[in-house]
Write a structure and sequence with these properties.
Layout: H1 2-16, H2 28-44, H3 57-62, H4 72-77, H5 93-106, H6 111-140, H7 146-158, H8 164-168, H9 173-191, H10 193-197, H11 203-209, H12 218-230, H13 241-271, H14 283-302, H15 322-340, H16 348-361, H17 380-401, H18 403-407, H19 409-436, H20 440-450, H21 455-467, H22 471-484, H23 489-501, H24 505-517, H25 523-535, H26 539-552, H27 559-570, H28 573-586, H29 591-602, H30 606-616, H31 620-632, H32 636-649, H33 654-666, H34 670-683, H35 688-708, H36 713-729, H37 733-746, H38 750-762, H39 766-779, H40 784-799
Helix pairs in contact: 2-7, 2-19, 5-6, 6-7, 6-9, 7-17, 9-11, 12-13, 12-16, 14-15, 15-16, 16-17, 20-21, 21-22, 21-23, 22-23, 23-24, 23-25, 25-26, 26-27, 27-28, 27-29, 28-29, 30-31, 31-32, 31-33, 32-33, 33-34, 33-35, 34-35, 36-37, 36-38, 37-38, 38-39, 38-40, 39-40
Length: 800
């Protein structure tokens, strides 16, 4: 295999005219392998570009109205723009700026644009890692082919399966960006000249600080570099006088970097809102858990068998826990080896890489407790060091203990084959993890398997199932989640949403109240309860909930929209007007608020507004909304007619067919309703509402057939008259009319026409009432009821 590469090199050198300079990026074989690496990297991640938003993406991107405008000044001066969750409002303005740019470029929440941006930065990070390693090796005069060692490090790191957890997780782009600028800082420092003399290398980590706190490890990592490579300190015996002097000289060199880092830390803490809270366990319990967490990261590097988006690890209760002891012993041995190998020329790179791994884990694996004791994306920057340690540690072991393997052509071929297999195995693993991150259902199902004791994982899997309309299994998942976290308010909130969706209003109310009573209830709890109130026509109570939310998170999601809609439902024009003016005082360019102010000023009904919108710019969605409004007002004929217009614009619009089915159902046209529901399910087989509606229509059809099966036509006509009267008494006037018409279709009669007339009077459609009463009087001129209804209709028509 080596001979093949040499032949390729000779041919490409001749073809390109490139010289065979040692340690040059112009080496044709290097260029060829570099291109192969980039292509392999793209192939490995080729199925991830359409993966959705997940987990913390929800409150930092999906729900975050701040990113709808690219406003750097706001991002860098106000930490609340980072997240809608007050406790999660860290100061990461660079990341918020990236999200806003991608939102603008994608014209909204298009994950493809986000992933393209992140992937480009990931490739650049791998490239800078290659450059950093080459420059480091050049300083050490390591070999004549340092660029290939740099490429090997970059390829091993870039194709590492475990890094898929960071690349797929959109908000964790901050880890990649922070790592990129840390590496650029090292490249600039190693370039020397003005970069080092005037400390210009600090520009890059300083930029990284604004992306994520992980970039703060630059200073201790630079200190480590100076100790090992420039001052050649024996770190195991650093306390000796001679070594201590070297440490002091190293610290003097790195002092400007530490001063900048300290200054930023002070600034960083001053920018954090009072509401910020990492939410972790006891510091001591968190700390004693971290050694085993570090062992997990090392094991996952080599065997990514248990990668999980949300682990079920919890902090250990006591240092006497055997897991804590094993972790401390394991990490203690590794640190000892790292310190011991720091003084030997052949093992300095191994020592540097391993200590880089431990140092860069300190922000998340020390005395600062996070809500999760372990997250696989936290190891992104640490894995840069671990890759250096792995590659150069393996080189040392092979050269020292197995020299024949390294020196023989057969051994070199075997090593080359091993490297290729290792890289491609990881690339395959990346491709498989991308499939897991595809959507909420696949991601959280994986979490429930990998982290079975994670209550939040079971809850989120339940949410994914509920989104698919699988309420039965969603409820099972929610109850499973409660076994592990019985006081987690979000689970009770989601149970309330589920119960409301299946029509169990009583249980829904109980779950919402339980959620609100728990200590971790927040604005999201209130939001979903407010939405539940709105959906159940409790508009005044809904307004109170949404206004409370705005006190916690102003302009959160569509809270103002719900407030306006509630006022609209109540026809409370004065409050709608005053609230519109109040919102516009803070957000003068809010088009939605301007629309509602116009509605309040002109007292436009909901139907009028929807008709104006659909006439201005017709769309399937607008026709569907108008159809729903007609349905809510009991106008089933227009509900069907307008839904039909939606279908004309979009023949595959399952929701529109469902509306057509609902309209026919309430007009007692069960065959047509069944036909429409079946079409909806043909287009969307998982459409749970259509499934439920289809079942109801079939049941009603069977019930109706059973009732009238043995009746004569006259008896069937009378049955429909009685049914019409029953609907009239229930104030279901459109269905009353439908039943009466069915009676007339079998046998024309004055009673049915009179029922139609009465129903139209109640609907204030007096011309139609007059026409119906006239038909009744043609059949029975002596009908007192028809005469009375006709006179009433005529009087009302004159008034109007």
């Amino acid at each position: 295999m080596i001979e093949v590469l040499l032949k390729i090199k000779k041919w490409t050198t001749k073809f390109t005219g490139f010289t065979e300079e040692h340690n040059s990026f112009r080496d044709p074989i290097f260029i060829l392998l570099g291109l192969l690496f980039v292509l392999t990297l793209f192939a490995a991640y080729s199925n991830h570009f359409q993966n959705g938003f997940h987990f913390d993406d929800n409150h930092t991107i999906e729900e975050n109205k701040a990113i709808k405008e690219v406003d750097p000044l706001a991002f860098f001066t106000d930490a609340t723009t980072f997240s809608t969750l007050p406790s999660n409002r860290s100061y990461r303005p660079y990341t918020t700026l990236e999200n806003a740019i991608d939102y603008k470029l994608g014209g909204g929440l298009d994950p493809f644009v986000f992933h393209i941006h992140i992937f480009v930065f990931f490739v650049l990070t791998c490239g800078v890692l290659c450059l950093f390693v080459k420059k480091l090796l050049d300083k050490l005069e390591f070999s004549r082919y340092n660029q290939f060692w740099g490429l090997l490090i970059a390829a091993t790191f870039g194709l590492l399966c475990a890094n898929a957890e960071t690349v797929n997780y959109i908000i964790q782009r901050s880890e990649i960006v922070a790592g990129f600028y840390v590496l650029l800082g090292f490249v600039a420092f190693l370039s020397g000249g003005k970069w080092r003399k005037w400390h210009l290398y600090l520009i890059f980590p300083f930029i990284g600080f604004f992306s994520k706190e992980m970039a703060l490890v630059f200073s201790p990592l630079l200190f480590l570099y100076l100790l090992i490579f420039e001052e050649e300190v024996d770190l195991l015996h650093f306390y000796r006088t001679r070594e201590l002097k070297k440490c002091i000289r190293s610290f003097t060199k790195v002092l400007p970097s530490f001063v900048l880092t300290l200054a930023f830390l002070i600034f960083y803490f001053s920018m954090l809102p009072e509401t910020f809270a990492p939410g972790g366990p006891n510091r001591y319990n968190y700390l004693i858990t971290q050694p085993l967490v570090m062992c997990h990261y090392i094991l996952t590097y080599f065997i990514p068998y248990n990668l999980s988006a949300d682990t079920d690890w919890v902090a250990f209760e006591s240092i006497t826990d055997y897991r804590a002891i094993l972790g401390i012993i394991g990490i203690g041995i590794l640190i000892f080896f790292a310190l011991k190998t720091s003084s030997k020329k052949e093992t300095k790179l191994f020592s540097f890489g391993l200590l880089w791994f431990f140092i860069s884990l300190l922000p998340s694996s020390s005395v600062l407790p996070f809500a999760e004791v372990l997250n696989d994306h936290r190891s992104f920057i640490p894995y840069m060091g671990l890759t250096i340690a792995f590659v150069f540690g393996s080189k040392y072991v092979l050269e020292t203990y197995y020299p024949k393997i390294v020196s023989s052509k057969k051994g070199q071929s075997i090593l080359t084959l091993f490297i290729i297999l290792f890289l491609f195995a990881n690339a395959y693993g990346v491709h498989q993890r991308n499939k897991v991150w595809k959507d909420e259902l696949s991601l959280w199902q994986d979490v429930t398997v990998k982290s079975p004791k994670n209550g939040r994982g079971h809850m989120n899997y339940g949410l994914a199932l509920m989104a698919k309309g699988d309420y039965t299994n969603a409820e099972i998942s929610f109850k499973k989640a409660l076994e592990y976290v019985p006081n987690y308010s979000s689970i009770y909130t989601n149970m309330g949403i589920l119960k409301n969706a299946i029509g169990d209003k009583e249980s829904a109310e109980k779950y919402f109240q339980k959620s609100l009573s728990l200590s971790d209830a927040n604005h999201r709890t209130k939001y979903f309860y407010g939405r539940y109130l709105f959906q159940n026509d409790k508009f005044k109570e809904a307004i109170d909930q949404f206004k409370e939310i705005n006190l916690i998170v102003p302009n959160y999601l569509d809270t103002n929209d719900y407030i306006f809609k509630s006022y609209h439902k109540l026809k409370d024009w004065e409050n709608m007007k005053s609230y519109s003016q109040e919102v516009l005082a803070n957000w003068p360019n809010d088009d939605t608020t301007k629309k509602y102010l116009d509605i309040a000023m002109n007292k436009k009904s909901i139907l009028t507004v929807l008709e104006e919108e659909v006439n201005t710019a017709p769309s399937p969605e607008k026709y569907l909304n108008l159809s729903l409004q007609y349905f809510n007002e009991g106008n089933f004929d227009d509900c069907i007619r307008v839904a039909g217009k939606a279908v004309k614009l979009n023949p595959e619009y399952a929701d529109a067919y469902n509306n057509i089915g609902i309209g026919h159902y309430y007009l007692l046209n069960y065959d047509k309703a069944i036909e429409a529901y079946q079409k909806a399910l043909e287009l969307n087989p998982s459409f749970q509402l259509a499934k439920n509606n289809l079942k109801n229509a079939k049941d009603k059809k069977v019930e109706m057939a059973r009732v009238i099966s043995n009746l004569s036509d006259k008896e069937i006509s009378s049955y429909y008259i009685n049914l019409s009267l029953e609907f009239y008494n229930k104030e279901k006037y459109r269905t009353c009319i439908a039943a009466a018409r069915k009676s007339i279709a079998i046998e024309p009669n004055a009673i049915a026409y009179n029922n139609i007339c009465s129903a139209y009077n109640q609907l204030k459609e007096y011309q139609k009432a007059i026409a119906a009463c006239n038909e009744a009087l043609k059949l029975d001129a002596s009908s007192k009821l028809a005469k009375g209804n006709l006179n009433y209709a005529l009087q009302q028509e004159e008034k109007h």
